[in-house]
Amino acid sequence: MKASAIVYTSATGFTARYAALLGEKTGLRVYPLDRAVKELDRGADVLYLGWLCAGSIKGLSPAARRFEVKAVCAVGMAPPDPAYVAKLQRPEKLWQTPLFYLRGGYRPEGLRGIYRPMMAVMAKAVAKVPAGTPEEKAMQAAFRQGGDWVSEQALHPVLNWLEA
Ligand SMILES: Cc1cc2nc3c(=O)[nH]c(=O)nc-3n(C[C@H](O)[C@H](O)[C@H](O)COP(=O)(O)O)c2cc1C
User: Are 36 and 60 in contact, with CB atoms under 8 Å apart?
Assistant: First the structure.
């Protein structure tokens, strides 16, 4: 196994679900970042999962300062797209670290604090653009009603990497 624990940051639960699924499948212990900081040894080898917020992976910088991040999973609501994933912001020391994208979901009622108005602005902007393709229509519907794309299948590349 290439990591000794799974550490994550989640606002509305989708990243937490992926982390829990990975824990079930690998037997690795799973920690939210705030608990990992208290309970895991500094420098421990971890797989880190964080939700995407305006193109950056939440919690990744503090996690990378504290632990040896062996691979990263970014969890967002955008459909998977390698060109998009390649552009995600990461600390320089993680540029060569494997990065996986997992499509999470959108649960507006679960958002707290600044994130709620931030997403309301985004949802308005998305609703204004004329949706042509079925994918664009599906994204507009997701912004209106929420969505859930968590799937075990999406974890196959991550599991292959962990167990290789
Ligand atoms: C303020 C805000 C910004 C977001 N920015 C992005 C983004 O840049 N790319 C993306 O794919 N999803 C973005 N999302 C969607 C979340 O990443 C998505 O809902 C994710 O599944 C949340 O995971 P969580 O439930 O673990 O918090 C954003 C959500 C919020 C609230």
Answer: no
pLDDT digits (tens, 9 = 90+) for 82-99: 999 999 999 999 999 999
Judgement on whether residues 89 and 114 belong to the same structural domain of the protein:
no
Which residue lies with its CA nearest to atom 20 of ligand 1? Answer: 76
Write out the H or E segment, with its range, that includes residue 148.
strand 147-148
CA 57 to centroid of ligand 1, rounded, Å? 9
Strand, coil or helix: 75: strand
Q: Which domain holds residue 51?
A: 5-107+148-163
Confirm whether pTM is higher than 0.70: yes
Say how many domains are in the chain. 2
Give the pLDDT confidence of 140-157 residue by residue, as tens digits.
999 999 999 999 999 999
Tokens representing 11 are 């606002």
Residue nearest to atom 12 of ligand 1 (CA): 76
